[in-house]
């Protein structure tokens, strides 16, 4: 999937270059942008622009940096709240499991883990969506308060804030299940605890199954809710807008509306930020956790098929036509996509090495039995003596420990194999990604040739223009010299005086 992600980004570079050239935005620079209207209205002073030389509204850079630092503290505080909610969901899962075990029903006791995981994932999804709405509004106010000069700077700062929060908001729970759940359980007689509760352990099927369940609920649930919102909310806004206009028109003389009036009565377009954010988060789901949830690309494809039609209905029939703005590319979104594609290589390497049973089985095949006979028994450790009641039967648990609770030699060998696999996997994949980046040019060959031709014609036109100007200047100079050599006419009185003399 990492190869697909990098190939996708490389071909997007080519598409971006084609569109930028078509719309004459290849050389568009940020210093060409005019200040934002909000910045102009709220700036405390005026200062000369060092590039254009014109007087423009000015905001002190030191004050802006202090405000950005304060906003960063707010972001960290909100991320801490997300972590608190994550711990709350973990405790909720433990409480639900205990309640199911104490019901006395054999069915509930058997399915206690699945019920707790599914219900906690739904609760987590609700908290994620709620916190996302709250933080987006907060990030917008923080970005306005930071007083960025241009629209590009404003959008980049706002995008970065929201993405950092949404990344932690959406991916913290899957990260916990993938890399932390079941790692600090301990062993019989020495169990680890969190706030007085025993740490969670993975189910009999391992944490990879639970991770796939959680990814399915969060990713697909988010897609369904977003699609419902994109269909229902514009309809409700349009209905409210029509009622408001109908009340105004009720007091006026009825006359047939013109087309531009009907277009103006549509809902005002709120921009494409939510669309970009949705696609980027989906890109993260299908690249970062694809090793645990291979069906993620399929659900993303189905969602995009529905999303295209919903967006077409929304932007064509419900929203006004947005005002176009010049820009050279998609801004900080592309940097985020590149970071996600590189992060996916590392995360998938750790998923394969530490979360799945691929390497333990492979090492067991190499050292003990190529057919994996006795692997399950080998992966179970005996509880230390004295940790169980005298009336209890012998207890075994999943770990590579001896009867004293210490790690066995196989555990340390497996740890070395895991670390070696991660290093080898990352180097091989990153090398292949660099090869793809080198093979696929950022600008299509036909477009590069066209740009060279345009530059040549521009230089040729400039040279011809200079030659024409030079000829005109030479012609004017020669004309002045020719007129200076002509005899100066004199009046008759002067000639008569000269002749008489």
UniProtKB/TrEMBL annotation:
Transmembrane segments: 68-95, 115-138, 158-179, 280-302, 330-354, 409-433
Gene Ontology terms: cellular component: plasma membrane
UniProt KW ATP-binding keyword: no
Xref: InterPro entries: Anoctamin, Anoctamin_TM
Cellular compartment(s): Membrane
Anoctamin transmembrane domain: residues covered: 1-454
Membrane topology reported for the UniProt record: Multi-pass membrane protein
Keywords, sorted A to Z: Membrane, Transmembrane, Transmembrane helix
GO molecular function: chloride channel activity
Pfam families given in the database record: Anoctamin (PF04547)
Protein family membership: Belongs to the anoctamin family.
Protein name from the UniProt record: Anoctamin
Classification lineage: Eukaryota, Metazoa, Chordata, Craniata, Vertebrata
């Amino acid at each position: 999937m990492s190869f697909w992600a990098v190939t996708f980004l490389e071909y997007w570079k080519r598409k971006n270059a084609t569109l930028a050239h078509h719309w004459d935005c290849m050389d568009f620079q940020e210093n060409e942008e005019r200040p934002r209207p909000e910045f102009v209205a709220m700036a405390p002073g005026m200062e000369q622009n060092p590039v254009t030389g014109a007087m423009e509204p000015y905001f002190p850079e030191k004050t802006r940096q202090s405000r950005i630092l304060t906003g960063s503290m707010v972001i960290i505080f909100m991320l801490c709240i997300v972590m608190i909610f994550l711990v709350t969901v973990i405790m909720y899962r433990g409480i639900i499991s205990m309640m199911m075990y104490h019901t006395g029903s054999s069915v509930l006791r058997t399915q206690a883990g699945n019920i707790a995981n599914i219900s906690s994932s739904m609760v987590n999804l609700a908290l994620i969506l709620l916190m996302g709405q709250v933080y987006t509004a907060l990030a917008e106010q923080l970005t306005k308060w930071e007083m960025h000069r241009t629209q590009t700077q404003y959008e980049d700062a706002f995008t970065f804030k929201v993405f950092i929060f949404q990344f932690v908001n959406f991916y913290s729970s899957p990260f916990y299940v993938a890399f932390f759940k079941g790692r600090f359980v301990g062993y019989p007689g020495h169990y680890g605890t969190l706030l007085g509760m025993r740490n969670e352990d993975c189910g009999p099927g391992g944490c990879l199954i639970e991770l796939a369940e959680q990814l399915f609920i969060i990713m697909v649930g988010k897609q369904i809710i977003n699609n419902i919102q994109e269909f229902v909310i514009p309809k409700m806004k349009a209905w409210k807008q029509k009622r408001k206009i109908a009340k105004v028109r009720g007091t006026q003389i009825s006359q047939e509306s013109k087309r531009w009036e009907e277009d103006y009565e549509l809902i005002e377009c709120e921009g494409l930020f939510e669309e970009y954010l949705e696609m980027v988060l989906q890109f993260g789901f299908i690249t970062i956790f694809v090793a645990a949830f291979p069906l993620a690309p399929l659900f993303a494809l189905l969602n995009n098929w529905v999303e295209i039609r919903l967006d077409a209905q929304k932007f064509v029939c419900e929203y006004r036509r947005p005002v176009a703005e010049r820009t050279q590319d998609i801004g900080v979104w592309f940097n985020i996509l590149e970071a996600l594609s590189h992060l996916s290589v590392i995360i998938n390497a750790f998923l394969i090495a530490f979360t799945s049973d691929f390497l333990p089985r492979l090492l067991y095949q190499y050292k003990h039995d190529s057919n994996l006979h006795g692997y399950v028994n080998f992966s179970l450790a005996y509880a230390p003596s004295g940790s169980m009641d005298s009336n209890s039967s012998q207890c075994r648990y999943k770990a590579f420990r001896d009867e004293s609770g210490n790690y066995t030699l196989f555990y340390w060998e497996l740890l070395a194999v895991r670390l070696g696999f991660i290093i080898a996997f990352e180097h091989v994949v990153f090398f292949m990604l660099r090869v793809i980046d080198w093979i696929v040019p950022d600008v299509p060959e036909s477009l590069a040739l066209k740009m060279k031709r345009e530059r040549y014609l521009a230089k040729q036109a400039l040279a011809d223009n200079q030659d024409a100007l030079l000829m005109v200047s030479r012609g004017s100079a020669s004309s002045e010299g020719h007129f200076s050599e002509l005899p100066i006419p004199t009046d008759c009185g002067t000639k008569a005086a000269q002749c008489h003399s």
